Amino acid sequence: NPLTSSIPKGRGFKSLRTPAQVVYLDRLEGLKGTVDNFALYEAGLIATPFHNVKVILRVELTSKLTLKVQGASKSVVEAVVKAGGAFVKTPTPLPKSAKEAEATDKK
Question: DSSP character for 25?
């Protein structure tokens, strides 16, 4: 068939999994208290709070905070605990449906 021979074969593998959003630990220096996906989103450090977030070490942390995200490198966990904070691995938050959002807005 000349049509199939004229079209190039699609090569490779395309993953459907969305990669984790990366946040560096030194960007969390100004945040206080509990830091989760929504706090990172409000600070402008991630694009959406409904995807996986991974924290990576670049500079040592000095402020005490509780980190509640989906992933962190071993060095980040050690740095957070050394600064007096804690790391809690949490599942990715799911967006609310339109009906749930309307119900919470009416209350």
Answer: G
